[in-house]
Structures are given as structure tokens and as C-alpha cells.
Amino acid sequence: MIDERRKQLLSQILGHRVALHRYLRKFTSGAEDIDDLVQEAYVRVCALPHGQEVQSPRALIFSIARNLAVDRARQACARATDPVADFEPLDVSSPEAGPEEQADARRRFETFCAAVEELPPICRRVFVLRKVYQLSHEEIAEVLGMAHSTIEKHVAKGLVRCRDRLRELGLLDEPGFEARPRKRSDGESR
Hints:
Radius of gyration: 23 Å
CATH class of the largest domain: Mainly Alpha
Strand content: under 5%
CATH architecture of the largest domain: Orthogonal Bundle
Structural class: mainly alpha
Order of helices and strands: HHHHHHHH
Oligomer: single chain
Number of helices: 8
Mean pLDDT: 76
Low-confidence stretches: 176-186
Shape: elongated
Helix content: 55-70%
Largest sheet: none
């Protein structure tokens, strides 16, 4: 009886494969990522205790897959240092850094990741897709169904909030973009 329930559950879940692939495009940057997530989600369903009652197999597999995608994105954010070119003043990667500098760089990076986590959900999603996964605005627009101008605003908002958070904590020495006096045509400053 239990084996028959499990077979029925698995056949119902396998019937949602195409929809699950389409759904996971929102959270990933490539087809192989989607395949990996789907496989991992199936493994998690198979690992459920025998006899566990499942009310909605579709909701179960989509929930598991979404959670796996979110976990993977968090891990990628924690590992991604190179794609964050806009924060070069952090100097988090130096081949000649000593132990104290490495500890400081790690603290700065962890603080940056925490600042990203504090962003509003939609802003964070756009920011991570652009800065971590390096998706183009067109790709993000396709995945999230947003206008290019909205994407640009969210990326800019994310950069500003993260920069301000790092400054607030005294971790960013770069003073930013101060207005410089413009020179007049006769050579004097205004």
C-alpha cells in the first residue's frame, strides 16, 4: 500500500516537470542549473518518510524547488567576489594580503552580503540577478517581467543602499561622488 502511494505521488510530481522548469527560470541563470534543481527536488521528495501524507504534490515539488533555488542563490552570493566590480574600494581580494587584512576583507564581504540580504525582496532579487549572476537587463526583464527602467532603478537602489550600509559601519573609506567645482571657460572655479 505504501509503495503504491509513493508511485502515485512520484507520477503526479513528474507530471509537473515542464511547469517546474518554467517556474525555476525566475530563480536561475542557466538550463543546467534548472535541471540540477529539478533533480535535487525529486531526490528530496523521494527522501520523504514513507507514509507521509501529501495533500498537494504540485505545491510540494514547487516549494522544495523554490527553497533549493533560494539556498543556491544565497550560497552563490556568499562565494561571489569578482562580479561585484562596483565595490572595488573594498579591496576584498589581494594576493599579498596578510592574515589581518584577510580577516578584515572577509568581515567586509560578510557585511556586504548582509547588506544585500537587507534589501527589499524585489530589489534584492534584481540586484543579485544583475551583480551575482551577471544577467543582462534584457534577461532580467524576461525572467521577472519588469521594464528596463525599473531594473535599472532597483540595481541603483541596491548599490546605494549597500554602499550606505558599509559607510554607516565604517567599512568603506571611499567618500563617494562629491560634487567638484566646475571650471569656467576663463579657468576660474565656480
